[in-house]
Amino acid sequence: MSPLKLREVTVANRVWMSPMAQYSAGPDGKPTDWHLVHYGARAVGGVGLIMVESNAVGPLHRTTSADLGIWNEEQAAAHRRLTSFITERGTVPAIQLLAAGRKGSHQLPWAGEGQNGPVRVADGGWETIAPSVIPFGDLSVPREADHDDIDEVVEAFAQAARMSHLAGYQVVEIHAAHGYILHQFLSPLSNRRTDEYGGSLQNRMRLPLRVARAVREAFPAEKPVFARVTATDWLEGGISLHEAATFAKELAAGGIDLLDVTSGVLVRDLEARPPVQDGVNVEFANTLKEASGLAVAPVGQIGDLSLAGEVVAGGHADAVLMGRALLRDPYLVLHDRPGDTAAWPNQYHRAL
Q1: Domain span at residue 220?
Q2: Residues carrying an active site annotation
Q3: What is the domain count for the chain?
């Protein structure tokens, strides 16, 4: 429960909410009442930082037509309802920025074939891009990104960072994992290019590092920038922990403040899924922390506060990101502090 200061932003404790897409935005990409209640409940519940779900950096960078977006001022203004309420509860509002690449233009998880079901252009979908013409599972075959596309991705992330500041977010996170476009460029499993953006690790890192520098420059210097990174693809021929460590060092040199450490989800292959194991990415986070000197926060299969406490107290990480546990119980942190009436809202004291 100790605070953590990153640049000029102080987070009250080390239990943070992981970004989890709700697929509940309107066609304009703006947050709705669902988002206000969803994130508001977790802010009341006492987490130190709320990472609002992945927000597309442009309309063609969405995963679904119901994704949140943060590419214009109207969207930024709509986000202020979220950031204002979260801040009032003493929680730090953060936002994850996303470009989907070949994992874009699919159905809502609960409709049809879900995230494995493509939405064609003729049916209201959009053309997707990727480093190479390799589809993700049954989704639409992407077009190989040309240099203009790559430049547009970089500027879209920078614009989204500017809009995030306008919206009142204190932290932005670059999503460079889970098989989205920056991860697609990083991994040799999805990047078969022969130009300066493919081949060697140095080349495969080029786009993600350009994005990191652009976001760092666009976001105020007193506010931290995080990066969600993959430690391994869990598949032979994919990203290795050694390559992830090299990438982490480069991110540190580019001004990134914290690594949100995860793994897998690049390909639709059951063998490439992370194993079912408590704190599956904790050791990876510790390795990347030692390699880069950056603060780290692992995510994935951290389901209770006792494990979270062990991870932080043991020095393996600086914070933990919890996901499904907070979907099940928005007041998870407060339940662990029943005698601390100051942590609970005045409106709830009669229940203590």
Answers
A1: 4-351
A2: 180
A3: 1
